[in-house]
Design a protein that fits this description.
Blueprint: E1 4-8, E2 14-18, H1 19-37, H2 44-55, H3 78-81, H4 95-104, E3 111-113, H5 127-140, E4 145-149, H6 166-169, H7 175-201, E5 208-213, H8 218-234, E6 240-244, E7 257-258, E8 261-262, H9 268-278, E9 282-285, H10 295-312, E10 317-319, H11 336-348
Parallel strand pairs: 3-4, 4-5, 5-6, 6-9, 9-10
Antiparallel strand pairs: 1-2, 7-8
Helix pairs in contact: 1-2, 1-10, 4-5, 7-8, 8-9, 9-10, 10-11
């Protein structure tokens, strides 16, 4: 009789699956990723390792001693004082207190702050306040302190921004106008990313995090690449983490290129190359979780994408391990059983340089 394994679905539902079902999901997951990105599937030994991690009866699992990796973050300290809808617990504390608690009580390898909207556009008009907070926190913290946010090119479209909205132009058949609007928005975004990056560097910024690049499509990703290149040319010692927003770059524009490389449709191993070419120091891989599939299926796909990216990337690859990303169930409070299994598999099988 098939032994039952307690696991989860991509939406966090706990369920018992048979060993054969888990193995089938692992097979199907790696095959799906390999077919989409034209990369190798996991080998038999890797699939067995993944099965053993998922089937481990312990509630919490961990990597083997000596295989620990660095953990960067995109505002983890915000979880202390933000609301539950943002994955937080709403404790009444300041940003400085949150950073110090995360660093000293939780043992964070790195720490970070960012605007509560977590986008760069709202930071520009209040940059002096952000510089002041960053400086004060950096003076009392020990771990590297990043300043981060999302490029979020969508904020540059009407009614929030200056550019016409492609989502209104495209249904009206105004294709050329929609493409131009994205190119104009990308120019605005690039300037703001560079502006904020340079201003933060004035107070000794220890690292800049461009989180979820490409969320508004290939022009969004292009703007981030251009900003990274410009910042690195003027401030070469400023460490920059550039994270993606999905397993492939969405072709909302379709024709934008970076150094003659068409961005639409690039998968993680290809994303890592252009991010490295732009001058970023770390590439953040992001694979969306399918809420209707099991953790085994989602994790098998993620590890397949990651393994190829880590093997070919010239710079370190940090897998995004959070709500609905890289095999973690889509829940505000992510379950520790899934988080630790995902983390162990990404490091030991996917060979992530960090999380």
């Amino acid at each position: 009789m098939d032994k039952k394994i307690l696991t989860r679905m991509g939406d966090g539902e706990r369920l018992w699956l048979s060993e054969s079902d888990v193995k089938t999901d692992i097979e199907d997951g790696t095959a799906d990723a390999a077919k989409r990105a034209n990369i190798p599937v996991l080998n038999e030994n890797e699939k067995k390792q993944l099965f053993d991690i998922i089937a481990d009866p312990a509630r919490i699992v961990s990597v083997n001693p000596g295989e620990e990796v660095i953990v960067t973050d995109d505002g983890c300290s915000m979880s202390f004082y933000s609301g539950q809808d943002g994955g937080g617990v709403g404790i009444p504390m300041s940003r400085m207190q949150a950073v110090l608690t995360y660093e000293r009580a939780s043992g964070g390898d790195t720490t970070s702050i960012g605007h509560s909207d977590y986008s760069f556009k709202p930071v520009k008009p209040i940059i002096n306040f952000e510089k002041n907070d960053y400086y004060n926190i950096s003076m009392v913290s020990t771990a590297p302190l990043f300043y981060g946010a999302q490029p979020n090119m969508g904020l540059y479209f009407q009614p929030d921004g200056p550019c016409p909205n492609p989502s209104e132009l495209l249904p009206a058949g105004k294709i050329a106008e929609a493409l131009q609007a994205q190119e104009d928005a990308a120019d605005h975004l690039t300037r703001d990313l560079v502006y904020v990056g340079k201003k933060m560097a004035e107070v000794g910024c220890e690292g800049l995090n461009l989180d979820t690049s490409g969320s508004a499509g290939d022009a969004d990703f292009l703007a981030a690449l251009r900003a990274v290149k410009t910042l690195k040319q003027s401030i070469p010692d400023l460490p920059i983490v550039m994270g993606a927003s999905g397993e492939f770059i969405i072709g909302m524009h379709g024709d934008v290129t970076y150094q003659n490389q068409r961005l639409a449709g690039l998968y993680p191993h290809e994303q890592a190359m252009v991010v490295s070419d732009a001058g970023a120091d770390v590439f953040g891989l992001a694979i969306g979780t399918n809420t209707t599939a099991s953790v085994a299926w989602n994790l098998s796909r993620t590890v397949t994408f990651l393994k190829e990216a880590a093997a070919t990337s010239p710079i370190p690859v940090h897998a995004n391990v959070g709500m609905g990303v890289c095999g973690i169930p889509m829940m505000e409070q992510t379950p520790i059983d899934s988080v630790t299994r995902v983390s162990k598999a990404l490091v030991q099988i996917g060979k992530a340089d960090g999380l």
